[in-house]
Specification:
Keywords: ATP-binding, Glycoprotein, Kinase, Leucine-rich repeat, Membrane, Nucleotide-binding, Repeat, Serine/threonine-protein kinase, Signal, Transferase, Transmembrane, Transmembrane helix. With 740 residues, this protein is α/β, with parallel strands linked by helices. It folds into four domains: 233 residues, Alpha-Beta Horseshoe (Leucine-rich repeat, LRR (right-handed beta-alpha superhelix)); 136 residues, Multidrug efflux transporter AcrB pore domain (Alpha-Beta Plaits), CATH 3.30.70.1440; 105 residues, Phosphorylase Kinase, domain 1 (2-Layer Sandwich); 201 residues, Transferase(Phosphotransferase), domain 1 (Orthogonal Bundle), CATH 1.10.510.10. It is 24% helix and 21% strand. A hairpin with a 5-residue loop joins strand 26 and strand 27. Helix 10 packs antiparallel against helix 12, helix 10 runs antiparallel to helix 16 and helix 12 packs antiparallel against helix 15. About 11% of the residues have low confidence.
C-alpha cells in the first residue's frame, strides 16, 4: 500500500528527485523518503521544485510521521480531507507552497501532531475549530494566507484554539481574521507568542494570565483607537540592533568558565556563528515576532534531524557593509553541556548547505560558523572555517562539499579517460542503417537539410576555421542570402545517425534568446554538419582568462557584463531543463561552448553530448561518460555519486562561473608553483577563502559593485559544485540567487 501511495506521488508531480527510480521507494533509496521495516515514516522534499497537486493516495501512508513539502511554490490545489487518516503524523509542514481552498476539518484527527505549519499559501475560509483538539501541538503557524472569520473559541459543544494548552507559538498574522481576542484561564500553559499582526481584530480582552505572553496586534483596527495605540501589543519592536532572544520565564544561570546561559537558563557551550540574509523582504531590522519565527524554524529543523538541541539564541541584528542582514546565532545542547563532533557537523551541514529553510520573509541566506571551543585545537569535521568579524566574511560560505571530496575528481579523471578510449574503440564498427527512415520518424523538420556539397560551397571549401574541438571543427560560412553562419563539421562516423537526428529534431524546436539558433544540418552517409547563426564575438573562453586579457586588452569584459553573461547562461539552462517540451540535459557546459553575439548576449551551443528525456523524469540513462574534464560532474563518470541528471549541468555551470570569478582555467595542469590539490581550481579558490586570502581571488577588482559581483559568482559557484547531486540547487534556484 505504501509503495503504491509513494508511486502515486511520483506520477502526480513533475520534477521529482533523480533518485526516484525502481519500484521500491524504501529498498531503492528514494531521496526524501525514510522507512522503517519497509514502511514509509518520513516524506521530506523541501524546496525540490515539485509541481502538481497532493493526491488523495497520500492518506495510505498510515505509518507516516513527518510530511514536509515546504517551499515547493508550484505545488497547488487543495489539502485533501483524507490527510486526517495519517493518525501517526507528528509534523505537517507545507510552508511556501501554492495550496488553496479551505483547511479541512479532518486535520483535527491528527492527535499526535506537534508541528503544524501551513503558512505562506492561499488557504481561505475559517480556521477549523478542530485544531483546538490537538493537545500535543507545540507550534501552530497559519500566517500569510487568506483565512477569515473569528478566531475559534471553545464552547460547551465545539472546540477552539483556547484549548491548545501545550502550544508555545501561535502565529496567525497576515490574514483577515476578525472579532475579539480573549485569553481564558486555560491559556496559563506554555504559550509564549501570539502573533496576529495585520488582521481585522477589533477588541482584545487582556487578562493577568496572559501577562507573560508576547502578543502582537500591530496593523489591526484595535490599534487605531487612541486608547489602545500606546499599548505594548500595538507597538512595533524597536528596529535597532537591540534584539536578543528572551529568557523563557526563568532566571539566567550563573555559569562557570566560558559557558553561557541558554534561553532556558542552562549553562552550556553553544555552537555559534553568523547568519547572513541576502534579501529580507521586511524593512529596517524587522520586529521581535519575525525573529521569534526564525527561532522556531531553526528549532523545528534541528528537532527534525533528531539533534539534542535545548534552545537557540539570536542577537544583534545588523546591516553589514554589503547590506546583508546579519544575525548572531547560538545553538545550545540539551543532553550535556556541549555537542559532540557529529552533532556539530550535522548542525553546520544543515545551515551551510541550505537544508534549513528560514521563514519566507528572510530570503536566501548563508552561515559562517565559529570554531567550536570545546574542540579547539582538534580536527573537527564541518567546523574548520574560521569566523571573521569583518564585512569581507560574507564570501566565506559552507556551500561546498569540501576539498577532500573535490580532490577525488582528479583521481577519477584518469578512469574517465580510459573509459572514453574504450568507448571510442567500441564505436569503430557500428552497423549501418537507413538514414531516411530515421529522419522520417520525426515528420517534417523545422530545419533545412543541406548536402555536403552545399557545406563546401557555403564555407569556401572549409577555408576559414573558427575553432576545433574533440567532436569536430567549426568554419565560417555564408548562406546564399548573405547571412553569416558557423558550420560545425563533426568527425566522421559510420553510425546510422539516429541519435544525431533525434537531437537535431528536438533542439530545432527550441527557441530561447540564450540558446544558439540552428538553421540547418547535413547528414550524408558518414558526413554530418550543423549550421548555426554566426556569433561574431566567439566563445566566452577567450574573455575570462586573465592572461588573455593582459595580452589583449580588448578581450577584457567588465564585471557587469560578465555578470549578465552568467545570468544569461543560467536562464538558457533553465529553459533546457524546464521550459521546453522535452527536458534537455547538455552535459558539456564550459566556456568554449558559450558563444557571444554582437551584443555579448550568451548563447549555449554544442549539443553533441546532450541527452533528451521526458519532462517528468530527471534521470538520464548514460551508456558512457560524457563531458569535459574540469567541468564534468562526478556522477557522470561514476554512478557511486548518484544518477546523471539536470544537476550534472548545474555542477558544470558552477565550475564555469567559478572560472569567471577567478579568471583562470580550472583544468589547467602546468602550475609547478602550486600543490597538486591546488591545481584543481575549486581547491585553489576554496583554499584562499579558508586562509582569508580573498584578495588573491579579487585581483584587480577594487570597485565595491564589482567586488559584490565576484563574491556572488563565487558563492553561487561553490554551492553548485557539491559532490552529492541532491545537495546542489536547481538552476531556477541559481537564478534566484544571482538576481536576489
Amino acid at each position: 500500500m505504501a509503495v503504491a501511495a509513494v508511486n502515486a506521488l511520483k506520477h502526480a508531480w513533475e520534477y521529482v528527485p533523480a533518485s526516484w527510480r525502481g519500484a521500491d521507494p524504501c529498498g531503492d533509496g528514494w531521496e526524501g523518503i525514510s522507512c522503517n521495516n519497509s514502511r514509509v515514516i518520513n516524506v521530506t522534499l523541501s524546496a525540490m521544485g515539485l509541481k502538481g497537486q497532493l493526491p488523495e493516495e497520500i492518506s495510505s501512508l498510515s505509518e507516516l510521521e513527518i510530511l514536509d513539502l515546504s517551499y515547493n511554490k508550484y505545488l497547488s490545489g487543495s489539502l485533501p480531507s483524507s490527510i486526517g487518516n495519517l493518525k501517526k503524523l507528528k509534523n505537517l509542514v507545507l510552508v511556501g507552497c501554492n495550496l488553496s481552498g479551505s483547511i479541512p476539518d479532518s486535520i483535527g484527527s491528527l492527535q499526535r501532531l506537534v508541528f503544524l505549519s501551513l503558512n505562506s499559501n492561499g488557504f481561505s475560509g475559517a480556521v477549523p475549530p478542530s485544531i483546538g483538539t490537538l493537545s500535543n501541538l507545540y507550534w501552530l503557524d497559519l500566517s500569510d494566507n487568506n483565512l477569515n472569520g473569528p478566531i475559534p473559541v471553545s464552547t460547551g459543544t465545539t472546540p477552539g484554539l483556547d484549548m491548545l494548552v501545550n502550544t508555545k507559538h501561535l502565529v496567525l498574522s497576515n490574514n483577515e481574521l476578525e472579532g475579539n481576542l480573549d485569553f481564558g484561564a486555560s491559556y496559563a500553559g506554555k504559550l509564549q507568542l501570539v502573533d496576529l499582526r495585520n488582521n481585522l481584530i477589533s477588541n482584545f480582552t487582556q487578562r493577568p494570565v496572559a501577562s507573560k505572553v508576547d502578543i502582537v496586534l500591530v496593523d489591526n483596527p484595535i490599534c487605531q483607537e487612541i486608547t489602545e495605540a500606546t499599548k505594548s501589543y500595538c507597538i512595533d519592536s524597536p528596529t535597532n540592533s537591540s534584539y536578543v532572544t528572551h529568557q523563557r520565564n526563568c532566571v539566567p544561570a550563573k555559569c562557570f568558565s566560558d559557558q553561557i546561559s541558554s534561553p532556558n537558563c542552562k549553562c552550556a557551550y553553544p555552537f555559534t556563528g553568523v547568519l547572513l540574509f541576502r534579501d529580507p523582504s521586511f524593512s529596517g531590522l524587522g520586529t521581535s515576532s519575525l525573529y521569534a519565527s526564525l527561532e522556531n524554524s531553526l528549532l523545528y529543523s534541528f528537532y527534525s534531524l533528531q539533534l539534542p538541541v535545548d534552545s537557540v539564541s539570536l542577537s544583534n541584528p545588523r546591516k553589514g557593509s554589503n547590506e546583508y542582514l546579519e544575525l548572531n546565532l547560538g545553538v545550545f545542547p540539551s543532553s550535556q553541556d556541549h555537542f559532540n563532533q557529529t552533532e556539530v557537523s550535522t548542525i553546520d551541514f544543515a545551515l551551510a548547505n541550505q537544508t534549513f529553510k528560514p521563514p519566507e520573509q528572510f530570503g536566501p541566506f548563508f552561515f559562517m560558523a565559529d570554531t567550536y571551543e570545546p574542540f579547539a585545537g582538534q580536527s573537527k569535521p564541518g567546523v574548520s572555517r574560521k569566523s571573521s568579524k569583518s564585512s569581507s566574511t560574507g564570501i566565506i560560505v559552507g556551500a561546498t562539499a569540501g576539498g577532500a571530496a573535490l580532490l577525488l575528481l582528479l583521481l577519477l579523471a584518469g578512469v574517465y579517460a580510459r573509459h572514453r578510449k574504450k568507448s571510442a574503440e567500441e564505436r569503430k564498427n557500428p552497423n549501418n542503417g537507413n538514414i531516411e527512415t530515421v529522419i522520417g520518424k520525426h515528420g517534417p523538420l523545422a530545419l533545412k537539410r543541406y548536402t555536403f556539397s552545399d557545406i563546401k560551397k557555403m564555407t569556401n571549401s572549409l577555408s576559414e576555421k573558427l575553432g576545433q574541438g574533440g567532436y569536430g571543427s567549426v568554419y565560417k560560412g555564408q548562406l546564399l542570402d548573405g547571412r553569416p553562419v558557423a558550420v560545425k563539421v563533426l568527425n566522421e562516423s559510420k553510425g546510422n545517425g539516429e541519435d544525431f537526428i533525434n537531437e537535431v529534431a528536438s533542439i530545432s524546436r527550441t527557441s530561447h534568446v540564450n540558446i544558439v539558433t540552428i538553421v540547418g544540418f547535413c547528414l550524408e552517409s558518414s558526413k554530418r554538419a550543423l549550421i548555426y547563426d554566426f556569433m561574431p564575438n566567439g566563445s566566452l573562453e577567450k574573455f575570462i582568462n586573465k592572461k588573455n586579457a593582459a595580452l589583449e586588452p580588448s578581450r577584457h569584459l567588465g564585471w557587469d557584463k560578465l555578470y549578465q553573461i552568467a545570468v544569461g547562461v543560467a536562464r538558457g539552462l533553465e529553459y533546457l531543463h524546464r521550459g521546453c517540451n522535452t527536458r534537455i540535459v547538455h552535459f558539456d557546459i564550459k566556456p568554449h561552448n558559450i558563444l557571444l553575439d554582437e551584443d555579448f548576449c550568451p548563447r549555449i551551443s554544442d549539443f553533441g553530448l546532450a541527452r533528451l528525456g521526458n519532462r517528468k523524469e530527471s534521470i538520464m540513462s548514460m551508456q558512457e561518460a560524457r563531458g569535459t574534464i574540469g567541468y564534468i560532474a562526478p556522477e557522470v563518470f561514476n554512478k557511486r555519486f548518484g544518477a546523471a541528471s539536470h544537476k550534472s549541468d548545474v555542477y558544470s555551470y558552477g565550475m564555469l562561473i567559478l572560472e569567471m570569478a577567478g579568471g583562470r582555467d580550472n583544468d589547467h595542469h602546468d602550475r609547478t608553483e602550486e600543490t597538486t590539490s591546488e591545481k584543481f581550481f575549486p581547491n585553489w579558490i576554496y583554499k584562499r577563502l579558508e586562509q582569508g586570502k580573498e584578495n588573491e581571488i579579487l585581483q584587480g577588482v577594487t570597485a565595491a559593485e564589482e567586488i559584490e559581483i565576484v563574491k556572488k559568482l563565487t558563492i553561487v559557484g561553490l554551492w553548485c559544485i557539491q559532490t552529492n547531486p541532491s545537495d546542489r540547487p536547481s538552476i531556477s534556484k541559481v537564478i534566484e540567487m544571482l538576481e536576489g
